[in-house]
Specification:
heterodimer, A: alpha+beta, six-stranded antiparallel beta sheet, three-stranded antiparallel beta sheet, globular, B: alpha+beta, Gyrase A, domain 2, Elongation Factor Tu (Ef-tu), domain 3, 3 domains, six-stranded antiparallel barrel, about 35% strand
Chain lengths: ~130, ~350
């Protein structure tokens, strides 16, 4: 399976991507994830002000036939959510990396070292599927 | 446990089909997009490999009488060339399977059963076979089966076969493709016009390849499930199972109590129903199998048996089994989605009206 994995992002084993800009992290799901899910028809992400914990579920993405939890790559407070995406979640299928879900303000940036690099994520996708 | 593969497995892989285990088989769940595959069937034409399903032949003087005794629907009085949908029940009324009986000609009946129930059905039928002058043969391993579905199914199929009349919905016709015999039925489980084509493996593989040449959309099990749910057809293992009777699942119309005798008649005579199957549409949220259905007081009254996002309506739709005793008089229904109640509209009609004849 060929999949786009931009080099400037960090990744989780649950197929979320994270764009790190100082202590703000923008989160979405990867091209691999959108392709595996198929037609995405529903998205539920937390409101601004919600506290997320790294590795815990923070929302749900649904395709026609399946329900998948979203896992937060980082611990911190939601400072922005992409409301447009909730009314047109199919945009994730069109452009997974252009469709961010939430922006999180991170307290402890050392935690970001636990995330996968693009290279490691590519390796993970190759071996696990 | 090793999974089985249909004779079209390599074709599915070549087409990029995503393969999943289903009822003991490795089957394509989707090729490109569930949405596109559903729309192909509703608006144009699509084809499904359903070779995993089972085929039994009953042949001999008592063929019709034997099958009529086994199932709840009326087989004896149906004309030759007809297909009849029916539950297969135990003496206590519970549903062993739902199947289609095809009356090929006097003394020859084909029964098509769900893949997951082939052995269970065959053993049951065998146990009831004594005293009937007819053979019962499980031919599942020598037949492949395609379902060509959609408004353009007839015009797609007709030029490929030696002969194909514009036959009635739920009828059957024996003809040939490239000189090889095929059995063609105007059936399917999508609500659209369409045909199911039974034949030997090589014949069906050639026919599949012909459909691909003609750009018929290959469709997977996910699209099939959305299509049948949009038109509210029950599926064994969801709306039907070993615990419920036909009345519990809204299939009272398939129980012909006026028939002289059949297995389960005594139990089904008073039309016993503990449950009823209801249809729900949600403006927000997607109901899924197993989600609780609540009344206005937030009390659980049943469970969703099948749920999905309808491609045609772009809304969540569900079939749900609720306890008759708890059926609310105000018709207010909620579906509990991840511990949040979402309001659901009760509807009497199927979510989508299929275009079949």
């Amino acid at each position: 399976m060929t999949t786009k994995i931009p080099a400037n992002l960090k990744y989780t084993k649950e197929h979320e991507w994270a764009l790190v800009e100082e202590n703000t992290v923008t989160v979405g799901i990867t091209d691999f994830a959108q392709s595996a899910l198929g037609d995405i028809v529903f998205l539920e992400v937390p409101e601004v002000g919600t506290n997320l914990k790294a590795g815990s579920t923070f929302g749900v993405v649904e395709s026609i036939k399946s329900v998948s939890d979203l896992y937060s790559p980082v611990t911190g407070e939601v400072i922005g959510k992409n409301s447009d995406l909730e009314s047109s979640p199919e945009k994730i299928n069109e452009d997974a990396y252009g469709s961010w879900l939430v922006k999180v303000k991170v307290k402890d940036t050392s935690e970001l070292n636990n995330l996968l690099t693009a290279e490691q994520y590519q390796e993970f996708c190759n071996t696990s599927h | 446990m090793t999974t089985l593969r249909t004779h079209l497995y390599d074709e599915h892989v070549k087409l990029g089909g995503k393969i999943v285990p289903f009822a003991g088989w490795d089957m394509p769940v989707q090729y490109t997009s569930v949405k596109d595959e559903v729309l192909a069937v509703r608006q144009n034409v699509g084809v499904f490999d359903v070779s995993h399903m089972g085929e039994f032949f009953v042949e001999g003087d008592d063929a019709e009488a034997f099958v009529d005794h086994l199932v709840t629907n009326d087989i004896l009085n149906a004309p030759n060339g007809k297909a009849i949908y029916s539950p297969l029940c135990r003496e206590n009324g519970t549903v062993i399977d739902d199947l289609i009986v095809y009356k090929l000609k006097p003394g020859k009946v084909l029964i098509c059963v769900n893949a997951s129930n082939i052995e269970k059905d065959f053993n049951w039928m065998k146990s009831k076979h004594q005293g009937y002058s007819c053979s019962l043969t499980n031919c599942s391993s020598i037949f492949s089966l395609l379902a060509l579905q959609g408004p353009k199914a007839f015009e797609t199929l007709r030029p490929l076969l030696s002969e194909l009349p514009d036959m009635e919905y739920y009828s059957i016709f024996e003809t040939s493709f490239q000189g090889q015999p095929v059995i063609v039925a105007r059936t399917g489980y999508t609500g659209e016009d369409g045909f199911e084509i039974f034949g030997h493996h090589g014949t069906i593989k050639s026919l599949w390849q012909k459909f691909m040449e003609l750009k018929v959309t290959p469709c997977g099990l996910a699209a099939r499930d959305v299509l049948r749910l949009e038109v509210c057809y029950p599926l064994y293992g969801h709306e039907l199972n070993d615990e419920v009777n036909p009345y519990d699942a809204g299939l009272g119309w398939t129980v012909k109590l006026s028939k002289q005798n059949f297995i389960s008649k005594e139990t089904l005579l008073p039309k016993p129903a503990k449950y009823k199957l209801i249809k729900l549409i949600l403006d927000k949220g997607i109901p899924r199998e197993g989600y609780p259905v609540l009344n206005s007081k937030n009390e659980t009254i049943g469970l969703v048996t099948s749920g999905t996002m309808s491609v045609v309506l772009n809304k969540g739709v569900a079939l749900a089994r609720i306890e008759i005793d708890k059926s609310p008089s105000d018709d207010v229904f909620l579906v509990d989605i991840r511990q949040k109640p979402f309001s659901a509209q009760l509807t009497k009609k199927p979510f989508v009206t299929g275009g079949h004849k």
